[in-house]
Amino acid sequence: METEGVPRLIRLLIQYSVHYEMVMTASDFFVRRTGAILFNIEWVKKWKYLIIRMFQTIFNWDEKVTNFPNEKAHTGHSLSLDVG
Predict the structure, then answer these.
(1) How far from 1 is each of 14, 19, 53, 58, CA to CA, in Å?
(2) How many Cβ atoms from other residues are within 10 Å of residue 7's Cβ?
(3) What contacts 28, CB < 8 A, 6 or more positions away?
(4) What distances in angstroms separate CA 81 from CA 32, 35, 51, 60, 75, one per listed residue?
(5) Mind listing the pLDDT tens digit for each residue in 7-32?
(6) Residues near 68 by beta carbon (within 8 Å), at least 6 away in sequence
(7) Is 22 left (phi over 0), alpha (psi -120 to 50) or beta?
(8) What is the pTM of this model?
(9) Cα 26 from Cα 54, distance rounded (Å)
């Protein structure tokens, strides 16, 4: 799994949420598992690309599915966080 640069706590949160809480997307993780997109947007902005890369590795997504800078094409939820 591609985890370079991702802190251990975040890796463990992702692994647990995927295996035990049926989290399927990074937006699912940010909204439902951590609530960070609502309460800690700076944390999401800091880690979103590495976390999305981890989900890409876990679920074998190609670049079309990942669709940086937002994953709306795959999930229906936008993670584009260019808001001031």
Answers:
(1) 12, 14, 9, 7
(2) 11
(3) 17, 75, 77
(4) 17, 15, 14, 24, 15
(5) 999 999 999 999 999 999 888 999 98
(6) 49, 52
(7) left
(8) 0.69
(9) 9
